[in-house]
Amino acid sequence: MAKQEDFSVLIVGAGPSGLLLALLLARKGINVKVIERSSEYDKQPRASFYSYPATYEFKRAGILDDVKAKSFFADGVSWRQIDHSLVAQIRTDDAPEDMKNISLPLDELLPLIGSHLDKQPTAEILWSHTVTALGQDDTQAWVYVETPNSNQRLSATYLVGCDGGGSKIRRELFGSNFPGRTWDEQIVATNVYLPDLKNHVPPDWTSSNFMVSRDHFPMIAQISNDGLTRVTYGEDGGLSYDEMRARQPEKYKAFVPGKPEPSDYKLINFSPYKIHQRLAEHLRVGRVLLAADAAHLCNPFGGMGLTGGFADVGGLYDCLYGIYSGQADDSILDKYSEIRRQKYLDIIDPISSGNLRRLWDPKAIEENDDFIKNVKRAQTDKEFANEMQQGVKAVMYDFTQHYNKA
Ligand SMILES: Cc1cc2nc3c(=O)[nH]c(=O)nc-3n(C[C@H](O)[C@H](O)[C@H](O)COP(=O)(O)OP(=O)(O)OC[C@H]3O[C@@H](n4cnc5c(N)ncnc54)[C@H](O)[C@@H]3O)c2cc1C
């Protein structure tokens, strides 16, 4: 086992999972380097909503107050037919603050975590460093890295792939084998200012609203305090970027309240995404680990992606800190792989798949959907509503229970 002063972790990817893991470890005095191929934080419209498993880790990383200060607190979520009539709704106005979903677009969250990481003496982010290969032996793992000026070999006690859905670390371990499936549909995520929206929404509108339609399956949500709105919707799998870009104004007219013309809004981002449900065969191979999107993917309806990713990060932090501090041996990392995979199979995959399919059949959502039946029950039964809200905690797992008893 490495002595504490020799213990170090290399993390590939300065996305949300890599940065948060680095911050958690660095706050314990662990030497950590984050290797990032880009020269700046990602600005794509991706994660924005975070539930309890994320805010729990923000608290442990010492950033929760700063995150809250910038965040928008969601007042609830609704499921609606495409004409905006209400099917069911969860209101969170009265929920305890730690159980409310908060929204902070990723392009604001990343520099926030990064600013805390920059203050840690044992942490460093290496920008414009692209990992091209890896290796390991009994004592170390290493990566080969290309920078604009040089090629390098960097090594550490452990290496963690937080390098996203196309993970180079995962491909080095398993080739193209990433079991699961890709949906026939694709989605388009837009960020937009719609100043007139509030004049057209029904009175029971909540900050997040899903709509049921096989053609569009839209989601409209306020994501920041200045009124920035995320409009996400479905598209045919075979369309090109240019075709989808050309169809965007008609799409908005089909489901955004008030049927706005392009002159009625300011489009900030437009990003199509292929969507997948996939899980790596192992999240540990020797000294190399996978977390978050590098380990598993799901469609983004319901915000399970990074919720599961941050739960990985919190678990892996406890495992690595346990080894560093002598409270665990490295077999705890096999537990990490086994349990985080099971959480994906039991919770993240079925729930996120259900969240998407629920938006496809206007009749089924009214008549046969057990989840919607529960939401309706929660509308009048406070205790049951509380139980439902706590349900998201099931994605978490406390690995300190596997620390050595002595
Ligand atoms: C439209 C949309 C909306 C979403 N909304 C939500 C939501 O509301 N809530 C939620 O929980 N989740 C949501 N998700 C999912 C969430 O965005 C992802 O789960 C999350 O961004 C994954 O974070 P990550 O750190 O694992 O990977 P990434 O954010 O993909 O970061 C990976 C990093 O690794 C770097 N990298 C890659 N390869 C290399 C290499 N070879 N060398 C060096 N660096 C490399 C990349 O440049 C990148 O910076 C959404 C996703 C989408 C598409």
Shape: globular
Can you give the helix content as a percent range? 25-40%
Distance between the first and last residues' Cα: 18 Å
Low-confidence stretches: none
What is the level-2 CATH architecture name of one domain? 3-Layer(bba) Sandwich
Would you give an account of this structure?
This protein has 406 residues and is an alpha+beta fold. It has a domain of 237 residues: FAD/NAD(P)-binding domain. Helices cover 33% and strands 26% of the residues. It contains 11 helices and 20 strands. The strands form 4 sheets. It has an 8-stranded mixed β-sheet with strand order 6-5-14-15-16-13-17-20, sandwiched between helices. A 6-stranded mixed β-sheet has the order 8-2-1-12-19-18, sandwiched between helices. The radius of gyration is 22 Å and the shape is globular. The two termini are 18 Å apart. The mean pLDDT is 95. Flavin-adenine dinucleotide binds next to helix 1, strand 9 and helix 7. This is FAD-binding domain-containing protein. It comes from Saxophila tyrrhenica. One of its GO terms (molecular function) is oxidoreductase activity. InterPro entries: FAD-bd (IPR002938), FAD/NAD-bd_sf (IPR036188), PheA/TfdB_FAD_monoxygenase (IPR050631). Keywords: FAD, Flavoprotein, Membrane, NAD, Oxidoreductase, Transmembrane, Transmembrane helix.
